[in-house]
Amino acid sequence: MHISTIIASTLFTATVFGHGNITSPPARQPGPAMAKVCGAAAVSAIMADGTGPLEGIQSNGSPQCNIGLCKGAQFADNKALVQKYAPGQVVQMTAVLPIPHEGPCNISVVNTKTNTIMETMLVFDSYADENLAVLPPNNTNFAVTMPTDLGTACSVAGACVMQWFWFGTAAQQTYENCVDFVM
Ligand SMILES: *[C@@H]1O[C@H](CO)[C@@H](O)[C@H](O)[C@H]1NC(C)=O
Ligand SMILES: *[C@@H]1O[C@H](CO)[C@@H](O)[C@H](O)[C@H]1NC(C)=O
Ligand SMILES: *[C@@H]1O[C@H](CO)[C@@H](O)[C@H](O)[C@H]1NC(C)=O
């Protein structure tokens, strides 16, 4: 292939096709607060393709910006999207996977202050396997049971998110979405 064709098709792939994201419950979106923290380019990258990997999002290098936490999306831009759950509640989730990349996936409650997992509710050892003729229905439609032992740790909006995390092993690409919730 001619080099310019390779570059053109790479660009085409990067800008036109998405890979995957959470469609329900509503997940954090980029906005003005994220632009302030991470830079306008990071916001533009997500606006151009909300299903792209973290590796395609350029941070402005500010220590306040962590693309690895919720793709850099900030609570301040998402106050209207906070879900309310009860301990033990079963929450139905849906995802789209336009371009699957086989690898592990999990859904966890993450402490946003420390960026640490408090509890992992669901684990797929092998998710989004592009070698399968059809993806298992549970890749795009699944349920998680909210933890019962978090006490008041998630009682204030913004303190905790439900994180969908997927890593395409061969692709070396990370996908992430965060659902803000109180419990
Ligand atoms: C998922 O990607 C679509 C297409 O880019 C975008 O419209 C939507 O806002 C994204 N959703 C999330 C939660 O990122
Ligand atoms: C879940 O995903 C996280 C990334 O946020 C990873 O560090 C962790 O090892 C995964 N846990 C399991 C049990 O798969
Ligand atoms: C998803 O479905 C597949 C195929 O039925 C099954 O092997 C796998 O264990 C399921 N994974 C989860 C996390 O429920």
UniProtKB/TrEMBL annotation:
One of its GO terms (molecular function) is metal ion binding. Residues 19-181 form the Chitin-binding type-4 domain. Residues 1-18 form the signal peptide. Keywords: Copper, Disulfide bond, Glycoprotein, Metal-binding, Signal. Pfam families: LPMO_10. Its cofactor is Cu(2+). Belongs to the polysaccharide monooxygenase AA13 family. This is Chitin-binding type-4 domain-containing protein. It comes from Amniculicola lignicola CBS 123094.
